[in-house]
Structures are given as C-alpha cells and as structure tokens.
Amino acid sequence: MVGGARASDLAMAQEPRLTDMIRKELADIIGIAAEPDFVRIYRHEMAIPQYTVGHVERLRNIDASLGKHHGLFLTGNAYRGIGVNDCIENSAKLAEKIIEESF
Ligand SMILES: Cc1cc2nc3c(=O)[nH]c(=O)nc-3n(C[C@H](O)[C@H](O)[C@H](O)COP(=O)(O)OP(=O)(O)OC[C@H]3O[C@@H](n4cnc5c(N)ncnc54)[C@H](O)[C@@H]3O)c2cc1C
Asked: Whose CA is nearest to atom 7 of ligand 1?
C-alpha cells in the first residue's frame, strides 16, 4: 500500500514513477530485485476515514441527532472503528438495537 492520509499524493503518482518507487523500496527493505510477473494498480481516493481530534464529541452529537429520527440508524467505518472486525462487531450490535427498537 502506498500513500495514506499523510502522503496521499504518492498514491496518485503516475507510471512508471509509482512502480519504480515501490520496487526500489522493496529492494531496500527486503531485498526483492526480481521483475514482477504483473503489475495492477488500484487507487482508492479518501479510502479510509480519519478520526480527527473531536471525534468522540462528534459521535455524541450524531447519536443525539439520531435520537430525534426514529427508525434511522447509522453504522460503518466512519464511526467506531475502521477495521473489518470493528465493522462486523458494530453491525451486530446495531442489528440487536434495531430489533429491540422495532418490537
Ligand atoms: C485499500 C484498503 C485496504 C484495507 N485493508 C484492511 C485490512 O487489511 N484489514 C481491515 O480490517 N480493514 C481494512 N480496510 C478497512 C476496511 O476494509 C473498511 O474500513 C471496511 O470494509 C468498511 O466497511 P463499511 O461497511 O463501513 O464500508 P464498505 O465496505 O465500503 O461498504 C459500504 C457499502 O455501501 C455501498 N454503497 C455506497 N453508497 C451506496 C448507496 N448510495 N446506495 C447503496 N449502497 C451504497 C457500497 O457499494 C458498499 O458495498 C482496508 C480499506 C481499504 C480502502
């Protein structure tokens, strides 16, 4: 993976610069010098939410607003954990909550 929130322009680098950079890093770090059999590039712009200072307060405000809209529920990586495991756990919890509030 190349880029990230602090160096997102790197992920947008054009070929052959991007592949050259990755190959050089792989050579420096783990000594891989062989030509790759194939190269495919997938670019994800703004792929992962960044939890900035104030996130907890923001969540509190969102929860308070949701309380005014019966039947509206939110989950996903923007709220309480970006990892797939967090998303699954939060989805399961939300499903329980929806069942409780619906019956
Ligand atoms: C490149 C990359 C690598 C990652 N690697 C890892 C990893 O190794 N391990 C890990 O734990 N996490 C990893 N993550 C993070 C993790 O994959 C995501 O945070 C997580 O999958 C997000 O789940 P989600 O359900 O919130 O969103 P998504 O998985 O993005 O699901 C949202 C769904 O909503 C659908 N959708 C969007 N708009 C609409 C609409 N208007 N109407 C109907 N449907 C809509 C989309 O098609 C999509 O299916 C990675 C993320 C990226 C981008």
From this structure: 83
